Each structure stands twice: as structure tokens, then as C-alpha cells.
Amino acid sequence: MNDFYIVDTTLRDGEQTAGVVFTKEEKLLLAEMLDKAGVHCIEAGIPAMGKEEQDCFKSIMDLGLKADIIAWNRMSKRDINASLECGAKHIHISAPSSDIHIENKLGKSREWVIRRIQRCVSYAAENGAFVTVGLEDASRSDINFVIEMFNKAVEAGATRVRYADTVGLLNPLSAYEIMSEIKASFKGDIDFHGHNDFGMATANSLSAYKAGVNYISCCVNGLGERAGNTSFEEIVMTLKYLENCKTDIDIRAFQDLSNAVQNASGFEINYGKPIVGRNIFSHESGIHVDGMIKDRRTYEVFHPEELGRKHEIVVGKFSGTAGIKYRLKELGFVVEDDQANKIMRDLRSMYARTKNINVDKFLINASIKRNAQITAV
What are the coiled-coil residue ranges (predicted)? Predict the structure, then answer.
């Protein structure tokens, strides 16, 4: 039972990140990992790009994954035919909806776009495909035109529609207001596709969900064009823990997926990246460490073990006696508070002179030097 569904577009929008290229082997591996993690829909590529992309898409189809494997298309029968020839059962058709795109990029009219999308949707549906329609630059579009296009697409045979905040200009309040207004007039399934240009893609996706949207587009690690897309691991954890949503996504798969995407893309994530950053369960500050040792809930919303990870007490410049004692115990030594306090002062003095310290070696040597009665355990 799921309260929301994930449309992962790492293999399509994620690979459109400037400088990123996935090999066929990498795409197959990532598709299998996403499927094993319980992702519901995987946007696997753009068959119209050519033979290599078609071969890769076919190979992903041949894996027999549980997830819906989606082929991305422009409003073109040529694109759709390329996807159908690859065996695609799920066809996504992207259509511009803002006047900026319709008039300045295509040199067309709103009426032309509606006629075109209806013909393309009908054609794909008549060929046995499940069809979804995405509105590019929807967040800069006339909302009444967006609703009209959604309804016209469904009339032509679309099973789901996508609202794309293509340039990431929504904020959580506007995302909620817009999606609420759309949901009041359109009762079908909507996929919210957020971009992170102002750092709000995940927050906007949460707002869209609260407004009634039940499908969320995202990429592992928030990969994607420019500033990236909604982060897969962030939005799943946000909905699971902050909204108490039911999901069959395996959150223990996040770290391996994150590492695999980093390796394949060549893009390393920030050390503090929510959910998968290397430092997110690390604690150094004396007050924090003291609280963590007494009750982990003081500075952790959920246990790292739920993600297959563990928390770490780091000894450094801001450590207090609790952290010193904790680390020394891990190293096999027991010290009293006054001894730990002396070691803490020694460590801070050392950090005033240099950043490059072998902390464990320093702790052991300082402990022995300060009090010979430290007991190994």
C-alpha cells in the first residue's frame, strides 16, 4: 500500500545534467537497483536519440523489472514510433505549455499545441501504450490553459499528467496553491516534476503532495539539469517521516544507490547532503555529543540503522569531555572526568596551532601522559 508513487528520472533527466554520460552497463545497473528499491516508475531514456539509446532501452526492458519502464518523447510520431519499436509499454509525451515556449521556441499557438498533443496521445494509446503527458514550463503557464491541456490529454487517452516546474521558480506556498487549484478542476493522477534552481524542489514536491498530487518525479542525489531535480531519497524520507505516509520503497537502498549514481555520473554529493551525506550522522559539538550519549533522540529524528548506517561521535576542536571519554572507551581506555577535561584542553591547544592532527593517536598519548592509571579495557 502506497500513499504516493515515485517516478524516477535519473536515467533521463539525471543524465541530461551537463557533463554526465551513463554507459549502457551503468544504466542497466541503476535500473536494477531502482527496481529492487521499490521504485514504481523508471524513466529509462529517449529512444528517438538514436540506435545506442534504443539498444540500451531495449536491454532495460529485457531485464523484466517490476517497475513501469517509461520512454520519454517529444510531440512527434517519429519519437513515439522509436519508443514503440523498442517495446515500450509506457510512453511519456512532453508538451510546452507556457507562451514563452510555445511562441518563442516553437513559433506556434496554444491551439496548435492542443491539437498536436491530442493527436500524439491518441496515436500512442491506439498502439497499446499507457500514455502520460508532461507540461514543460507549466509553472510559467496560464493555469487555466494547464487545466485545459490536462483534460484534453486525458480525453485523448492519457492515463496520467505531469506538472513540470521546469525552471524551479515555485516556492512551497505557491506550489501548494497552484496544485490545489488544479486538483479542484482535474481529478486524474498528477505527477509533480520539480527542479531545484532556488533550492526548493523537495519542499515544493512536499507541498504538491499535500495539495493532492500522488506521483512525484525525482532523481537519485537530486541529479539533473542546472541545479538538479527533486532528490529521490529526500522526498521519500520527508513523506515517510514527516507526513507518516505509507510506502514500500526500501530506504536501506538509498546509500548504495547514491554511491552508484555518484560513481556513474562523476558528481560527488556534498558531505552534508540530507539522508545520504557522509556527515549527517556525525556529532562533534560537546553539547550535542553529551545529549546523544544520554538519549539519541536529542539530535536524531530517526535512527541511522534504518538506512543501514550508524552514527559517529567525532572528536575535534568543539568536543567536550563526554565525547573524549566516549572515543577513548572505544579505543580501549577509561578516564575520569578530570582526566578527560585535561585532555580536552590539550586538544584545543593543539588545534590552535594546527589542523592536521591524528586524533586517536593524540588521545591515547595525552591520556597516558596525563595519568598513568588509565586502565585498558
Answer: none
Sign of the CA dihedral with 12 first, then 224, 180, and 203 last: positive
**Interval 159-179: pLDDT, tens:** 999 999 999 999 999 999 999
| Model confidence band, residue 370 (pLDDT cutoffs 50, 70, 90) | low
Query: Could you report the per-residue pLDDT of 64-108, keeping only the tens digit for each?
Result: 999 999 999 999 999 999 999 999 999 999 999 999 999 999 999
For residue 372, pLDDT beyond 50:
no
Question: SS3 string of 80-95?
Answer: HHHHHHCCCCEEEEEE
Q: Would you mind telling me the total number of residues written for the chain in this entry?
A: 377
CA–CA dist 8, 15 (Å, integer): 12
In the chain, the domains with their CATH numbers are 5-265 (3.20.20.70), 282-375 (no CATH)
Please list, in sequence order, all residues whose beta carbon lies within 8 angstroms of the beta carbon of residue 56, skipping any fewer than 6 positions away. Answer: 24, 27, 28, 44, 45
3-state secondary structure of 287: helix
Calpha distance 132→159 (Å, rounded): 6
* 73 Cβ contact partners less than 8 Å away, ≥ 6 residues apart: 46, 47, 48, 79, 80, 82, 83, 91, 92, 93, 94, 120
* Segments in the chain forming alpha helices (H): 24-36, 51-62, 77-85, 99, 110-126, 143-156, 172-185, 201-210, 232-237, 254-265, 286-294, 321-330, 337-353, 359-370
Model confidence over 214-251: pLDDT tens digits?
999 999 999 999 999 999 999 999 999 999 999 999 99
The yes-or-no verdict on residue 367 having pLDDT over 80 is no
DSSP E strands, 198-251:
215-218
